[in-house]
Design brief:
By secondary structure, the chain is mainly α. The protein is 70% helix and 0% strand.
Length: 239
């Protein structure tokens, strides 16, 4: 039945370490979508857009896709690539023309990120292809909205820095809660981490740390760029 084809993990069953590098994802619909996006950014001559496509290939085509079926920590890397790397690159390629709606964009992107890390939502996404893509599209789409608000034309550096600090703070708080949770929360990763030398709780703690600390690097880089731009504007105004 057609409905039965959707009740599975999109990236396939959790791989064993020895077979990971054979687990590339050549889903025709995915590859076609990425190719169309590449054509768009190529015509726009957007270096940021091309980098974003490369990040999406890493997230969805490379063996990271399969690894994220096994390890929560790999899934965190996958999500960070979407919301903190691909999304800001796409936002740099297509920044918003107006500076309004920033707080709504921040609120929606925060709610979306937190909702998908509720155990019931997360486990459902990893067991149903349709829900999986709802997760991916909503994460990337809401994050793109947030980052376009950050880089919007006319946005003051102070406002942009405030948004960046708030964006990283909410992700860091979620990472801290996952790191210090007393038990493993996700049934989808109840067994597979053992094949990789992790207990499910250790795997979850590693994922929390990745979300808590290293995931802040893109926000720090963006904050540095915003601060430099603001400083350059001040110097230009002073002269």
């Amino acid at each position: 039945m057609l409905s039965d084809a959707w009740i599975r993990t999109y990236c396939g069953p959790a791989p064993l370490p020895e077979s990971l590098w054979l687990r590339w994802n050549f889903d025709p619909l995915l590859l076609t979508t990425l190719l169309l996006l590449f054509v768009v950014v190529l015509r726009a001559r957007s270096g940021h857009g091309m980098l974003a496509v490369g990040v999406l290939v890493l997230a969805f085509v490379s063996p990271l896709c399969a690894l994220s079926s096994a390890l929560f920590s790999a899934r965190v890397v996958h999500h960070v690539l979407l919301v903190a790397v691909a999304a800001p690159l796409l936002a740099c390629a297509w920044p918003a023309r107006r500076a309004g709606g920033a707080m709504l964009a921040f609120a929606v992107s925060t709610v979306v990120l937190w909702l998908w890390h509720l155990p019931v939502a997360y486990d459902l996404a990893l067991s149903h292809v349709g829900v999986y893509w709802l997760m991916q599209i909503s994460l990337l789409g809401s994050a793109l909205w947030f980052w376009r608000a950050v880089f919007a034309q006319g946005r003051s550096p102070v406002e942009a820095l405030t948004l960046l600090i708030a964006g990283f703070a909410q992700m860091g708080l979620l990472g801290a809660l996952l790191t210090f949770a007393p038990e493993a929360l996700y049934a989808a990763h109840a067994l597979a981490p053992l094949n990789w030398g992790f207990s499910p709780l250790t795997d979850q703690q590693l994922g929390g740390v990745l979300m808590w600390v290293p995931a802040g690097l893109p926000y720090a880089i963006a904050a540095g760029a915003v601060a430099r731009r603001g400083w350059a504007t001040l110097r230009a105004g002073a002269t």
